[in-house]
Amino acid sequence: MISFDNTEYAFAYKSDKELKRANFLFSSMGSPLLVNLGLKLMPMAIKMNIPFTKPLIRQTIFQQFVGGETLAETAPVADKLGKYNVQVILDYGVEGGEDGEHGYDHAQDEFIKVINYAATQPNIPFMSIKVTGIARFNLLEKIDAAMHNSEGTLMKRYSAVIGNLPAAEKEEWQRVVGRLTKICEVANTKGTGVLVDAEESWIQDPVDALTILMMDSFNKERAVVYNTIQLYRHDRLAFLKDSYTAALERNFILGAKIVRGAYMEKERKRAAEKGYPSPIQPDKTATDRDYNSAVEFCIEHLAHIAVIVASHNEYSNLFATQLLDKANLPHRHPHVHFSQLYGMSDNITFNLANSNCSVSKYLPFGPISDVVPYLMRRAQENSSVSGQTGRELALIKKELQRRKGYV
After folding, report:
1. In whole angstroms, how far apart are CA 238 and each of 3, 229, 244, 291, 341?
2. Using CA atoms in the order 309, 313, 317, 320, what is the torsion angle rounded to 10 degrees?
């Protein structure tokens, strides 16, 4: 039976110095006052180019949660993880949009560079993209709103809305489709998986439809494209099952990366302001229930689903391995992969790896100024998620104490 309490496995890849730095960082993130102050000052200091800001960020939160500023800087991190049977999901942490169509084309090219690099590395089976990196947010929002006012299945609503767009917006959307198609074509040729990130609920429908179109084209023989399904939304378990039905009808493998979610506070706030029912589960218990049901559904249908269990929840990961054991399936099943964010939940990642599971770290990279939004989310997550920082700290302190005993 897998134990997530083994800190010797969890932190074998970290030196004493690195472990002490992590201890300091998580101790700091345990203070809401300090985190809130940092969240206000960090973007401002970066924007104003205040001296020592970037070196300070690089030596603390950046080093904990990000692989590097470039692919070259990230490579040693990926290599180090590989020595412990842990793979990597590369995430180019820059979101397009500021430079219009040129910016979206540039993001497409950067994603393709990541794919080409990953194809040369045995330890990097996947890369991650955001559709908001290659598409205008307001266009996604307009298409989503129109889809919500249409009837029928997701794909019928999508087709109807795209067909009724004004000519200029229809052409703009076709460029978006073309960018994602090109990314997936290269990924298919190179043998690299593409994980399409989830977005806010008010732009998610066109992202879902576009991702299903890509799966219909590229997932015939193996899973190349994966959709990200956020189970903190109360409608996503049903969506997963509907996506499976579509996969059976269209004869493709459903790629499903299942997560709990990342936009909860923003979602609830917007729903309250605009006066519509919140898409978020009523409580964590409901989220956990649907998440574990999604894991079970995927593992029960592995002939047509390739699943990535992307979770920092110990029970959900253990539950997935127990389901595999119950079905007499190997932990390293070709359609089952586990993943956690780099810099967090090492006790889960490395103990899964030790149990011969296919497991990876989600490893962002990019210039410090561009990955600040990602770093802010990690700081907020560790200060607001109940027990997250305390759990990380307890495990780090346990390992430091264990090592001290060997001195």
Report:
1. 32, 11, 10, 12, 26
2. -80
pLDDT attached to residue 43:
75
Low-confidence ranges of the chain (pLDDT < 70): 39, 94-98, 381-388, 406-407
Amino acid symbol at 293: S
Beta-bridge partners for 127: 90, 194
Cα separation, 32 vs 382, whole angstroms: 10
pLDDT for position 266: 87
The answer to whether residues 155 and 212 touch, using CB atoms and an 8 Å cutoff, is: yes
Q: How far is CA 330 from CA 173, 335, 339, in A?
A: 42, 10, 17
Contacts of 79 (CB under 8 A, 6+ apart): 123
Work out whether the CA dihedral 148, 152, 155, 156 comes out positive or negative. Answer: negative
pLDDT value, residue 387: 61
Which parts of 166-283 fold into alpha helices (H)? 167-190, 201-218, 236-250, 264-274
Assess contact for 359 and 307: CB atoms under 8 A. Answer: no
Separation between Cα atoms, residue 375 and residue 367, nearest integer Å? 12
For residue 97, the model assigns a pLDDT of 55
- pLDDT value at residue 155: 97
pLDDT for the residue 369: 81
Domains and CATH numbers, the chain: 97-310 (3.20.20.220)
C-alpha 182/C-alpha 116 separation (Å) is: 13
Please name which of 15, 86, 3, 1 lies closest in space to residue 399, comparing C-alpha atoms: 15
Position 158 scores a pLDDT of 98
- Give the integer Cα–Cα distance in Å for 367 and 231: 31
Element (H, E) at 404: helix 388-406
What is the longest distance spanned by two Cα atoms in the chain? 71
Answer yes or no: are the C-beta atoms of 373 and 380 closer than 8 Å.
no
CB 339 within 8 A of CB 91: no
Distance of CA 356 to the CA centre of its chain: 22
pLDDT for residue 100: 85
Say how far apart CA 8 and CA 2 lie, in whole Å: 14
> pLDDT tens, 55-78?
888 888 899 999 999 999 999 999
